[in-house]
Amino acid sequence: MTVLEQPGAYRPAPPPAWQPRTDPAPLLPDPEPYRLLGTGADLDPELLGTLYGHLVRGRRYNRQATALTKQGRLAVYPSSTGQEACEVAAALVLEERDWLFPSYRDTLAAVARGMDPAEALGLLRGDWHTGYDPHEHRVAPLSTPLATHLPHAVGLAHAARLKGDDVVALAMVGDGGTSEGDFHEALNFAAVWRTPTVFLVQNNGFAISVPLAKQTAAPSLAHKAVGYGIPGRLVDGNDVVAVHRVLSEAVERARRGEGPTLVEAVTYRLDAHTNADDATRYRDDAEVETWREHDPVALLEREMTARGLLDEAGKARAHEEAEEMAARLRARMNEDPVLDPMALFDHVYAEKTAQLREQAERLRAELEAEESAEDGQEGDER
């Protein structure tokens, strides 16, 4: 008697709603990155204007945040310059009730979702646990460990579906994150449970200094979806309209209860990995300049100009709004925050553990002792 012949043995069986797939073609990702700009496709002028405004502000945001690191106002900043199309599209395709799960490079997506630009940088400044309230705009904490937020996105989406909530979770990750076990676990559970989750991989060519060719032998990262039995889409990550359309379709599909989608956006990080990285050690200037010719801001600007939807006055207005945002951000970041050391123990658990309470009391005693000593010293000086 074999194991499967024993009474009560596990026998793989499809879920009740499963139907045999007669044509496997829909599971195969696009053979070439999907594009819309420059193809003559019919595009919504209002959407183009909205996307353009966000892209211009996003580019200025990246430059301002990078400058703040040089001024010592930020500890580190992982710039998304060159990847703004992915950041903006990911934020704008979601409804208010949906959740965004960003990685450490996705502060711009959080800002495009409506978050205060200064609050989005709180974690990178070292001010607070997350720097913002995740529930206010439904943006999960920026995830520095690679891909650990992906299972969280699946869990939230699964819980929402069990509760009957009409919620979609969109999780962002870089190509390096696809090499992590959390990526596999998240996609596997999402596929099995058919969760309303969209995975956006921003393939910018490098996991810090490791090129994609040394991470995978797959034809594309979108092909990885095939192994999980879910659709994979390949899109030009610098074509903001194409990214917006592909993600919109994936979000709508998830909301209809048809399960997750893996989207690979082929893009490029024009700046170094962070301000602490020397990108010249693993790529040359010629490669960077080649990608500058495919700049997402310039691509959309040329398209709108050619369609008669953007003139010099329109460009000037967009850049003025971006400069105003940058000025407000500088002013906020130049203010020294007033921090309460006791807040270190807040928002760790719903109820403090015994260990946290003990640590909090120890710190409180130390702070009171320091304050008493300072008061005594001031009294002696008087």
From TrEMBL:
Source superkingdom: Bacteria
Cofactor(s) in the UniProt record: thiamine diphosphate
Positions of the Dehydrogenase E1 component domain: 62-327
Region of interest (Disordered), ranges: 1-34, 361-382
Keywords: Oxidoreductase, Pyruvate, Thiamine pyrophosphate
One of the Pfam families matching this protein, by short name: E1_dh
InterPro entries recorded: Alpha-ketoacid_DH_E1_comp (IPR050771), DH_E1 (IPR001017), PdhA/BkdA (IPR017596), THDP-binding (IPR029061)
This protein's record includes keyword Oxidoreductase: yes
Biased composition (Acidic residues): 368-382
Protein name per the record: Pyruvate dehydrogenase (Acetyl-transferring) E1 component subunit alpha
Lineage, opening ranks: Bacteria, Bacillati, Actinomycetota, Actinomycetes, Kitasatosporales
